[in-house]
Amino acid sequence: MNWSISFEPLLSWPLLALVLVPLALLALVGLWFRQRGAVLRLVALLALAAALFNPVFLNEEREPLKSVVALVVDRSQSQDIGDRTRQTDEAVAGLQQRLGRFKQFDVRVVEAGKSDAAEERTETRLFGALEGAFRDVPPSRIGGAIMVTDGEVHDTPSGTPEFNAPLHALITGNDHEKDRRIRFENAPRFGLVGKPLDMSYRVISTENETGPVDVRVSVNGEQVSVEHATVGQAMPLQVTIPGAGRNIIELAIDREPGELTDTNNRAIALVDGIRENLRVLLVSGEPHAGERTWRNLLKSDASVDLVHFTILRPPEKQDGTPINELSLIAFPTRELFVEKIKDFDLIIFDRYQHRDVLPILYYDYISEYVEKGGALLIAAGPEYAGEASIARTPLMSALPAMPTGEVVDKAFYPRLTELGQRHPVTRGLDGSATEPPHWSRWFRTIGVQNPQGEVVMKGADNRPLLLLDRKGEGRVGMLLSDQGWLWARGFEGGGPHVQLYRRIAHWLMKEPELEEERLTAEGRGMVLEIRRQTMADDPGPAQIITPSGKTLAVKLDKSEPGVFLGSVQTSEIGLFQVANGDLTALAHVGPVNAPEFADVVSTQERLKAPAEATGGSVRRLASAAGSDVTLPSIVPVRSAGEASGSDWIGLRTTDDSVLKAVSRVPLFGGFLGLGLLLLAMGSMWYREGR
């Protein structure tokens, strides 16, 4: 019971003052002058005042509230190492049993580190979970917190925790744990394709050893070297970036006997390969309406260095003008096609014909250039079907089709073939989805016979219009019309000439995105996404090997012609291997080199400062691997008392309560109050009458 007194005046306070103050002054004056009956008058005044003030005794019935205690359980992946999971489970069960004995505690169990969110899977954020547990609790009701963790907490506050209650940490693992890890010290995100990239790394050991160790260096899953490193020292590394786009550089060291885990014996760096400017040689024949189409396109591409020559003056055109008076330079054939031909990524012959400008032997050099990995594009016009066609030179061995000598002058809409609808060069061209296509017509097709490679576009009478072929290690493209400039000039609405021409050029120069058969994988959050480009009707399922060694099969569904997609949700973080047919790919899911695996040795140091600042404690659950879990006793303590001892931990109790009922007892109410008031007034009247 909680007794208290309260006043419930019958009149307002100003009116009470107006009535009682003059009476009080008169009573006091009477006492001062010692008048007869002054004491009785004062008593009667007090009785009247008490009746008007109406004092009431209150009896409050209250129910005490419980202190809220948070039991924060670390379920991060580092807790799966060794006996930590067993220690955690035993500790949580024991703590729940002991806390259940105290009726004054409201226990809230919060598990952290097992969410599907990538950030929570890669960092142990126990204080964020603790804040969430106490979000709806007033500070006066917080009894304390107990954390069961390995001590590797990544959101430890720099100062005192916001709640004023003891924080206790029970550490899993054991003393004298051993681990060795590797990490990148310097890993640029970009590198030039084919050029060495300077990086650095460090091998770290918990025992501060300084001996030698072998480090395996792999690029995109293929081991390229074995480096000899010294533990504890920053070591330089040079890696050649093999291709454009995403490249995965992996460092790995062997597992030592007694190590906790080999998860952090690997380090990953993602490097985007950037190609240096592509060098293109464009050789145009005599000027024609579409001559500048290829030039303008290539000049507008910042990644292309263009060398362009136009044969304005063939050898047979003699007008007697002295050589030193010609305004244009001579064609440096030997320098371009003998000395520096290997420097070019692509050679384009735009309506070029053999007119003794190039020695016949140089066509052999061009064929050899293609066989050894070069790229050649023939933008054919009527010259390709004539007597001076380059198909009648030694270059014929590199060409995908021979001319029939026929030039078809007939209006037609360029259309994609069935292969062209799946081929990355022509797939999804703007305007190709309608019939007829939503672009302008062309009016000339060069006839060819026995085409090789892939016919991805067709012209008049379904004749081949665009051929793409591989020759040895190189590639050859052939556009069998010189009417592409109609699209560039906007004739009948124009067409996607920039999109088409650029794709042709980049496919010839082996851009990875335009490969017909390509398998890529990428991690987005905790989802592994797979993309398969293929000319086949069905590539079949993709096979996945997870970082833990598990094997999965993922179905690939068709998203558009030539493209199949698949995805899988995963809880593992690390490097995934994906295979489909003869193709393989690597992908990293989750943040690279996540803090969760950077240091897996259990420690008491990270939580010592916040625990001591709140009067709590940090202690281990087990002293050695395989030993039994030892839990401290739990003691309820007052707010000002000690909260920890050698074998016990304290949790504070609260003085807060909730009001359930109130009983009222008026002191001057009813007949009792009336009687007292009449007695006082009557006594005063009696004394005054004598």
UniProtKB/TrEMBL annotation:
Looking up Gene3D superfamilies in the UniProt record yields:
3.40.50.880
**Coiled-coil residue spans:** none
User: Per UniProt, which keywords does this protein have?
Assistant: Membrane, Transmembrane, Transmembrane helix
Annotated TM spans: 12-32, 39-58, 667-686
Domain of life, per UniProt, equals: Bacteria
Name listed for the protein in its UniProt record: Uncharacterized membrane protein
